[in-house]
Design a protein that fits this description.
The chain has about 140 residues and is an alpha+beta fold. The chain has two helices and seven strands, in the order ββββαβββα. The chain has one domain: Nucleoside Triphosphate Pyrophosphohydrolase (Alpha-Beta Complex). It has a four-stranded mixed beta sheet with strand order 4-1-6-5, with helices on one face. Strands 3-2-7 form a three-stranded antiparallel beta sheet, with no helix packed on it. The longest helix is centred in the middle third of the chain and has 13 residues. The structure holds 8-OXO-2'-deoxyguanosine-5'-triphosphate.
């Protein structure tokens, strides 16, 4: 248990980049926690997976995008206490992948310029990640 008595939840997230340096955001669907907010694609790291394996799996499941572990570059991470857990979320950047992203789970998608990221309400854990992407791109 962490000091706050909350479990640490490990979630892997990815800033998928297109040729124009835009970043893919996905909108969390109704009925889920943080519904309506714009997030980086990704998900919980399952038992027996590395974060990189999680992302290769999730990008395919969520977006129909095929990529490889070698195409995922670590950028930074989020560490944020939510009400019922503490989120630890490594953020990777991916520039090399195959396929055209589409919301396979019905989620809205948006390619966003780094300078426009603040126009899209994101989960509180994500706010501190924005400057890292703006500096990178
Ligand atoms: N994928 C992703 N998850 C994020 C981001 N920011 C952030 O706080 N999260 C949180 C939301 C969820 O609590 C968790 C990711 O869980 P998930 O995507 O695998 O599962 P989920 O939404 O179905 O989970 P749940 O909250 O509905 O139980 O991480 C982000 O940028 N990307």
């Amino acid at each position: 248990m962490s000091e706050a008595g909350k479990k640490i939840l490990l979630v892997a997230a990815c800033a998928l980049l297109d040729q124009d340096g835009r970043i893919l955001l996905a909108q969390r669907p109704e009925g889920k926690s943080l519904a309506g907010l714009w997030e980086f694609p990704g998900g919980k790291v399952e038992q027996g997976e590395t974060p990189e394996e999680t992302l290769v799996r999730e990008l395919d499941e969520e977006l129909g995008i095929k990529t490889k572990i070698a195409c995922l570059a670590p950028l930074t991470f989020a560490s944020h206490t939510y009400e019922t857990f503490h989120l630890l979320m490594p953020l990777y950047v991916c520039r090399r992948y195959e396929g055209i992203a589409h919301g396979r789970e019905g989620q809205a998608l948006k390619w966003v310029k780094p300078q426009a990221l603040r126009d899209y309400p994101m989960p509180p854990a994500d706010e501190p990640l924005i400057p890292f992407l703006q500096d990178l791109l």
